Amino acid sequence: MKDALCGKAGTYYDGELTPDEESLFLAHLAGCAECQRALHSTVQLDRQVRR
Ligand SMILES: [Zn+2]
User: Fold this and answer.
1) Residue 38, domain member (yes or no)
2) Band of the pLDDT at 49, cuts 50, 70, 90?
3) Measured at the alpha carbon of residue 11, what is the angle toward residues 9 and 12, in degrees to the nearest 5?
4) What is the domain range of residue 37?
5) Ligand 1 center to residue 50 CA distance, Å?
6) What spacing in Å lies between the alpha carbon of 31 and ligand 1's midpoint?
7) For 26, what's the count of Cα atoms within 13 Å in the CB-facing half-sphere?
8) Ligand 1 center from residue 28 Cα (angstroms)
9) Which one is predicted more confidently, 21 or 2?
10) Cβ distance 42 to 13 under 8 Å?
11) Ligand 1 centroid, distance to 14 Cα (angstroms)
């Protein structure tokens, strides 16, 4: 079963998840290498853009 939260790393990083979704996402993130990688690259990108 595909987790509905998978792929929401960018949305999470933007602070656009509801508090409910956010805690579900954090639980998902702990076990999902794909989301960890996505979140990491979002952070990197954000740092480059903001400088
Ligand atoms: Zn995921």
Assistant:
1) yes
2) confident
3) 65
4) 9-50
5) 26
6) 8
7) 7
8) 6
9) 21
10) yes
11) 16
Tokens of 19: 């508090």
- Cβ within 8 Å of residue 3, ≥6 positions away: 28, 32
Number of structural domains (the chain) is 1
pLDDT digit string (tens) for 13-38?
999 999 999 999 999 999 999 999 99
Residue 42 within a domain? yes
Position 2 scores a pLDDT of: 65
Rounded to the nearest angstrom, the distance between the alpha carbon of 46 and the centre of ligand 1 is: 20
In a domain, residue 32? The reply is: yes
- Expressed in angstroms and rounded, the spacing between residue 3 Cα and the centre of ligand 1 is 7
d(CA 10, ligand 1 centre) in Å: 11
pLDDT exceeds cutoff 70 at 1: no
CA of 34 to the centre of ligand 1 (A): 5
Q: Look at residue 19 and tell me if it is in a domain.
A: yes
